[in-house]
Design goal:
The structure is a homodimer. In chain A, helix 1 (4-14) packs across helix 8 and helix 5 runs parallel beside helix 6. The longest helix of chain A is centred in the middle third of the chain and has 17 residues, at 149-165. By secondary structure, the first copy, chain A, is an alpha/beta fold. Chain A starts with a helix and ends with a helix. Chain A folds into two domains: 4-50 and 148-319, Rossmann fold (3-Layer(aba) Sandwich), CATH 3.40.50.1100; 52-142, Rossmann fold. Helix content of chain A is 47%, strand content 14%. The first copy, chain A, is built from 14 helices and ten strands. At the A-B interface, strand 1, helix 12 and helix 14 of A face strand 1, helix 12 and helix 14 of B.
């Protein structure tokens, strides 16, 4: 499992490698929600998402002899970019396996950091299988996007930073995909300040963590669907599920319409570009799903890598 | 004139009233420009623009008996919102004179802060005349958008913050409309660290400061035109011109196409919503107009209040 010490170590290891994002108090979102709202803008993080924290924390603790053989990730999105970036900084080669038809922008970003990009299949299972094979054949270190103690500890540094900037925080909201971010944050918060509530947010069409917690065992969704493309693994990880079960107070769900409205409101009121997955927390907040009122509340904006064409469609959709 | 002491006083006066924005180092813009680039994101400032600094600095030093009679601004844009917000915080009434056909979003924002909004005429001269009349009739204090020592000193706090965060800064780029921002920044920087260069940036269709500096006297442009609607006064102010003549190293000009490209690149790479006027500095940087290379350079992003429909058009224009 992952404890507070692992997250503190990650904090030291990451110093100078990541951006120390600051909480932004938001008078507008406070007025709209009835809470006292602070945003944690990980869309302003290096590579545009929190994923750089976990990827860097894993890669920096690899034995250099092993690291020089290279690292590998299976990801069409922010984790792939993060691994490519962290490996480049460490001077290690990186391979990123992406689905056929992956976004040209994201592939270009990974290549821009010097990674070898391999197109393969269409499902995450196919990509993971190839990544596993290549890892064995070439002696590469596989970096899992969420179910990995170093990755979880790295994401948990978000929680430590929140406590540093707002020690009296009442409630933290974070998006849930495979669960790495929520698990890391929950350990950091609950082991430091048990009275603070930690809620996850999932899309209604991809609520595998919510279902797993309700069932008391990992539940699988065959075809998760949502505009929040970073929150669509078919199931949470083994480690992330256990940590969520122990530490997370609940998981809220949001519709695509609520997510899209949150993306627009963030553009207009916070002047921030936040991808749909990253705006799920604000979607929960603005749709009145966060319990209570008047709470000192932090909404984690997990990333800002969104195709600008989609962003224009979202803006236009609002006008329609 | 305005000196360093007035800016230091403004700094103390504004503490707790504005957001202390932080420089964001940008690896991407550094790579693209050949400089070592830091962004000063005043789009994340309260009310979405630096204007709150000057407006608040003026309003907070008014004698309260006078303040309670009210303040007035003539502005269709960020200055009007800033005056409305600063007056509301001080507990003073505010009147904002806007042109007929002013953006509904901006009018709603001023009203949201409790200001009385008066639609009048279409030119800034007509608005200024009415504001002057109302000021006399009702005993209101007129807050000029730029040619006012308190306003200039308030905007100059941007310069002090830059020096605090990056003491070894080589060059600062700021957009120029009426000149309040560039004048304040130039005083702060040149009186603290004379070797640092300070450049203004104007649209080619609204380069009244550049022409004035070249002519050695205030020059007027009858019909300034640019997508950067915050940079279109017909002439610089008397005070701002004198300060610019004394302290500013030069004014660069950018085309609308360069501005639009900068807005898009800021959305995509910096995940920031920056209005065209606010993106002029990055436009100068990315079009290779900033002299030298390898400089520790700060680009001020002056604001982020842009109609989302225009933003969608800008994104789509890029695809076309």
């Amino acid at each position: 499992m992952v404890g507070l010490n692992a997250i503190r170590e990650a904090r030291s290891r990451l110093a100078g490698h990541i951006t120390r994002t600051r909480l932004e108090a938001s008078a507008g979102f406070s007025r709209m929600s009835g809470h006292s709202v602070y945003l944690k803008p990980e869309n302003l993080q290096k590579t545009g998402a929190f994923k750089i924290r976990g990827a860097t924390n894993h890669i920096l603790q690899i034995d250099p002899a092993l690291g020089r053989r290279g690292v590998i990730a299976a990801s069409s999105g922010n984790h792939g970019q993060a691994v490519a970036h962290a490996a480049a900084r460490a001077g290690y080669p990186a391979v990123v396996v992406v689905p056929e038809g992956a976004s040209a922008v994201k592939v270009a970003a990974a290549r821009g950091y010097g990674a070898e990009v391999i197109y393969h299949g269409t499902t995450s299972a196919e990509r993971a299988a190839l990544a596993g094979e290549l890892a064995r054949e070439r002696g590469l270190t596989f970096i899992h996007p969420f179910d990995d103690p170093w990755v979880i500890a790295g994401q948990g540094t978000v929680g430590l930073e929140i406590l540093e900037d707002l020690p009296e925080v009442d409630l933290v909201l974070a998006p849930v995909g495979g669960g790495g971010l929520i698990a890391g944050i929950a350990v950091a918060i609950k082991e430091s300040r048990p009275g603070t509530l930690v809620y996850g947010v999932e899309p209604v069409g991809g609520n595998s963590m919510q279902r797993s917690l309700q069932a008391g065992a990992i539940a699988t969704i065959e075809q998760p669907r949502s505009v929040a493309d970073g929150l669509l693994p078919t199931r949470p990880g083994e480690i992330t599920f256990e940590l969520a079960r122990k530490y997370v107070d609940g998981v809220l769900t949001v519709t695509d319409a609520e997510i899209v409205a949150a993306v627009v409101t963030l553009l207009e009121r916070a002047r921030l570009v936040v991808e749909p997955s990253g705006a799920a927390t604000v979607a929960a907040l603005l749709s009145g799903k966060v319990p209570g009122s008047g709470r000192r509340l932090v909404a984690v904006l997990s990333g800002g890598n969104v195709d600008l064409g989609l962003l224009a469609d979202i803006i236009r959709g609002r006008d329609a």
